[in-house]
Amino acid sequence: MTTDSIEAADRLNALRDSMGRAARLTGRTADDITLIAVSKTQEAAAIRPLIAAGQRIFGENRVQEAQAKWPMLREETPGLSLHLVGQLQSNKAADAVALFDVIHSLDRPSLLTALGKAMDAADKRVPCFIQVNIGAEEQKGGCPIAETPALIRAARDAGIPVSGLMCVPPADVEPAPYFALLAKIARDEGMDQLSMGMSGDFETAIMLGATHIRVGTALFGERPSPARPVPASGRGMIRNSREG
């Protein structure tokens, strides 16, 4: 193994140890939790050491970025699984269905319609998580809590496989109440899959029932923050920006 691969393996093993400690408190093990390595903004050269260390499930925020690097990486290493964990525009639904194995950000009827058409055209059913705007934040994606049961029913009626619920809690506050609320909504809807928890709060998420965690910084290190134009309203540029 290269030095980069050894360092990646050390980070991965340390993370899995932390996952295991949290999982044991709920009668589970680290193997019961799906670890999604969020590789947004990471170049292929930074991802390969983690693949060499044994990680096989990755997450991306943007369809176009994923298209630029993952076909090559998948050709190099068959058996990789790719999850879309960021906001999805309806006009990218067909591309997302073609590229991703799981979509974590189904959050509105218009996207449901676009995904249904794309899945029908591709003759491919991609499992989806319903993203819930658990903190009722205007600047973030996610279905309003009150509308979530109806969106779940509509997705099922459309033949879209609904795996569970996903959330991104508000920043800089204790996430536990939001994770607990998502778990309650899932129970009420007869679901047991929860995509919640990132680098700073995955242990709390696991203790509150997370089955999928989305971790970037703890595996890849701090990312540079790309400069983006801010709309005059000051809104619309955050959405799922906390992923990882």
From TrEMBL:
Keywords attached to this entry: Pyridoxal phosphate
Keyword Lyase assigned: no
Domain Alanine racemase N-terminal: start-end pairs: 29-224
N6-(pyridoxal phosphate)lysine carried by residues: 40
Function: Pyridoxal 5'-phosphate (PLP)-binding protein, which is involved in PLP homeostasis.
Family in the record: Belongs to the pyridoxal phosphate-binding protein YggS/PROSC family.
Protein name: Pyridoxal phosphate homeostasis protein
